[in-house]
Amino acid sequence: MERYAMGDDAAFEEVYDALAPRLLAYFRRHTCRLDRAEDLLQQTFLQIHRGRASFLPGAEVTAWAFAIGRRLAIDVSRKDRRQVPVASAEEVERAPPSSREPLPDELVRARQLASQVERELARLPDAQRLAFELVKQDGLSIAEAAAVLGCTPTAVKLRAHRAYEALRATIGAAYEEKRQL
Amino acid sequence: MNPPGDLRAKIFDHVKRERSPTRSGVAARTSVVLVAAVVSAAVLFAHLGGMHVGPRPIAYVCGTVTGWSIVAVIATWLAFARGRTMLGRSRGCLFAVVVLTPVVLFAWMLLWNARYPETLTAWPGRIGLRCLAFTMTMAAWPLVALAYIRRERDPIHPGLAGAARGVSAGALAGIVVDLWCPIANPAHVLLGHIVPMAILMTVGGAAGRLLAGIRAR
After folding, report:
1. Is pLDDT of B66 > 90?
2. Positive/negative CA dihedral, B103, B106, B111, B112
3. Deepest of A45, B44, B111, B116, by most Cβ within 10 A of its Cβ?
4. Inter-chain contact A95–B20, Cβ cutoff 8 Å?
5. Crossing angle of helices B195-207/B158-180, nearest 10°?
6. Chain A partners of B2 at a C-beta cutoff of 8 Å?
7. Lowest mean pLDDT among B50-54, B57-61, B112-116
């Protein structure tokens, strides 16, 4: 990013390759629409491009990019309140295949579990859900997530842990119920 | 998940077409805006009569102006500079600027009032409305300059950062107003010199949300 901020346009490719997959996954989860996620990705990179001259040497680029992306996602969701909590079947079909093709019942169970996790996450308070997603799903460090959310690292740890405990309690109980049946 | 190739091509194309300012360009533009704000404020100050010591002891004027200057510079630095991160100051830091700046400045004035009791004399008919208007006018320049420089640059707490900038602009204007206004009565200082900071906090907060925040297009 430092080279890009200094005016080296070729360095944009490296910035893009490092950030784009994580940002797109983040936007996919938040918008549940691929077209909207791609639009947000594009807008995030344009914001980074416009603000590159103001990039501070040695500053953390991941947290900055996620903070821009989060703000854009909030802005878009305010404009368009229509949000689907779970990815559509068509989008699930478009997901990249894994190296081993899963068995049909494994696939069904994985989808059910994913849907359940999404539903439970949607029920959590925003602060807990965001902390959990940034740390557990987007792979940000506690410090980066704290910077993105504008709170202390301790608060992020606490929120992510509470979200994790809530998910474990709900999904774990449902899993036990099914197992006993 | 990797973004599709056509999206990558589209983003690269946009980035290639849209020229972004260079660091030297941004530094030059920032300098021009800040110099313009300072010169405009100085011209306005001179036009409105410049410095009035009035019945205040000179040591009182020096002391209050020095205190205002130190607090205003610290508040501006905290509200405007981003520290070592691209995300700006923490919520606690900005909140401290918003709350503590007016409190510290008023306490500083009271301290000097206590040292020079003759400055407590009330001036009938001068409750502080002229000073309020003058502070607002003088603060408009740094506030507009700071808002322009930081437009679309605050991904986190744009409203609170704007409020902190409003307060710091009020504190900067307060230096000049303290030189201009010969009245040191606490009630007058509260209405004419401190209350404008609260108004500017509101204005700055709204401006921050509208201008400094990042918005989807």
Report:
1. yes
2. positive
3. A45
4. no
5. 150
6. 20-21, 24, 96
7. B50-54
Report pLDDT for A178: 63
Q: Using CA atoms, how far apart are residues B119 and A162, in angstroms rounded to an integer?
A: 57
**Is residue A84 pLDDT above 80, yes or no?**
no
Angle between helices A153-180 and A104-123 (to 10 degrees): 130
Q: In a 10 Å sphere around its CB, with 0-12 CB exposed, 13-18 middle and 19+ buried, how is residue A167 labelled?
A: buried
**Of the candidates B84, B154, A17, A60, which has an alpha carbon nearest to the alpha carbon of residue B204?**
B154
Cβ atoms within 10 Å of A11's Cβ, excluding its own: 16
Q: In 3D, which of B128, B136, B121 has the Cα closest to residue B181?
A: B128
Determine contact: B14 vs chain A, CB below 8 A: yes
pLDDT computed for residue B80 by the predictor: 85
Residue B136 identity: M
Nearest to B200 by CA among B75, B108, B110: B75
Chain A contact probe: residue of B90, B95, B209, B214 with most A CBs at under 10 A? B214
Residue A85 pLDDT > 50: no
* Contacts with A148 (C-beta within 8 Å, 6 or more apart), sequence order: A63, A66, A67, A70, A134, A140, B87, B156
d(CA A45, CA A27): 13
- Chain segment B13-50, per-residue pLDDT in tens: 888 888 887 788 888 888 898 888 888 888 988 888 88
Distance from CA of A173 to the nearest CA of B (A): 31
For CA atoms A151, A152, A157, A158, the dihedral sign is negative
Residue labelled with tokens 């109980």: A173
Q: What is the pTM of this model?
A: 0.75
Q: Given a cut of 90, is residue B5 above it in pLDDT?
A: no
Of A24, A47, A151, the CB nearest to B1: A24
Contacts of B91 in chain A (CB under 8 A): 150-151
